[in-house]
Design a protein that fits this description.
The complex is a heterodimer of chains A (280) and B (227). Chain A has 280 residues and is mainly α. Chain A has one domain. Chain A contains 8 helices and 2 strands, in the order αββααααααα. In chain A, β1 and β2 form a beta hairpin. The radius of gyration of chain A is 25 Å and the shape is elongated. Chain A starts with 22 loop residues before the first helix and ends in a 10-residue tail after the last helix. Chain B has one domain. In chain B, α2 runs antiparallel to α3 and α3 crosses α7. The radius of gyration of chain B is 18 Å and the shape is globular. The two termini of chain B are 29 Å apart. Classes of the chains: A mainly alpha (280), B mainly alpha (227). Chains A and B meet through α4 and α5 of A and α6, α7 and α8 of B.
Amino acid sequence: MAEEPMSPAPLPEGTASDTTGSRGSRLLGVLALVGLAVLGVLAFVLTDPDVRIHPSTGAEFGQFDAVRMLYVHVPLAVMTYLAYGLCAVASLGVLIRRTPWWDVTAHAAAEVGTVFCGLVLVTGSIWGRPVWNTWWEWGDVRLMTTLVLFLMFAGYLALRRTTGDPRAVSRRAAVVALVAVLDLPLVNRSVEWWENRTLHQQSTLGDLKIEDLTLFTLMLGFLVLGMVLAWLLLHRFRVGWLERAALDHSVAAAIVERRGETPDDELRRAVGDPSPGESS
Amino acid sequence: MSTLRTVLRDARLVAGRDLRIEARSRVVVDQVLPFAVLVLVLFGFALDADHSTLRTFAPGLFWVTVLLSALLAIQRSASLDSADGTGTSLRMSGLSPVARYLGRTTAVFVQLLVLEALLVGGLVVLYGVSVEEWFLLVVAGVAAGVAVAAAGTLYGALASGLRARETLLPILVLPVLAPVLIGATRAFDDALGVAAVDGWAWTGLLAVAALVLTVVGASAHGALVED
């Protein structure tokens, strides 16, 4: 793996690095947008609703049109795991390597992961209203563990927004993230471990109980939302990196300005500034 | 082995110091305990002083009250090291971060036990509940107390020194303690005869949570106190 930079370079104004976009990220963004449009058409128009016939009564049952929400909900949940997993790895990097690269990565992953986690809760709630007949089910373990995960990372982001020594804040945030991701296995395995305390169904992907256009649309959902995640992570990372560069730049400018206020030439030479006669 | 003995001895020193400070300043006794009783009373007002309703919800109200009051005790504990350069002195004293963490957790745990004992009395007197399984009640109270103290001490250290620490601490620690709240409430449901649940199974989960939180706290505390 390439060595991560120790700190951001000073902000070079007017150059390409004062933007968060690049040719690659723009291409990724366009692909993600087109993919989202195709996913929308497949999920909400072309795929069939979930309608089954009861063998003895002949009555229709199933999730009907509500199943369409799952083409978005399930990939969003998997991308949330990925983003928070990345945050955990980067947080370990913060504690071990102590470089800004890991810190900015952890922050970006946590922020994007929390947006995805919020969307998981919202899309799940919209799906649950017609299928479970309730917006929210307090007895569902997966719902509860996901909510706790969301709240723990909301706390993480609140910690990130506090002012103070940036190194101390990044170390503390890393600890919060590492404790929070302990909830991830609980969220993921809850439907197996507490199968009597959840309304969520167990995974049907592993044994391929779904097929044809349904499976294709779900896989497309993973691909497209993976691209959206990557695009958001890339840009959030670059925003964080530029924020750091801007901070370093303003601190350096303030030091130079303060030195300029010192009247004693000897003192200025002692701190490494050229004397007025030597400067151009 | 000698290292473990040193850690335990140092932890006892730190716990003794925190408890002596509390005994002299009486912040928990004069402020946190009255606050806890006040919350119990307010729940009574909010639920229209109906005994049967209060009895039904007593376990949940008890643990919400414990958590809210624990926040005050944790903030008080965390503030001890941020005044007058005490934190710097402790860092230079050679005490290991693990010993400091265990010591502070023990002190908070002792204070929480006092708080829980008082609140159980409050439940009996104010809400009219009767304890059906004392042993379960005590074991669940101890396990949940350790979990709350372990997480609280870790997050108290984490929020200390930051400008918004008073508002930050609840946001950080309460989601972590949500599973403890659920487990402790279910265990008390059984102990108080409110619901037919397996209180010992929930107490087992509480013990696991207490162990995990203590190990995580002891491991992570070093990274926090370096600041």
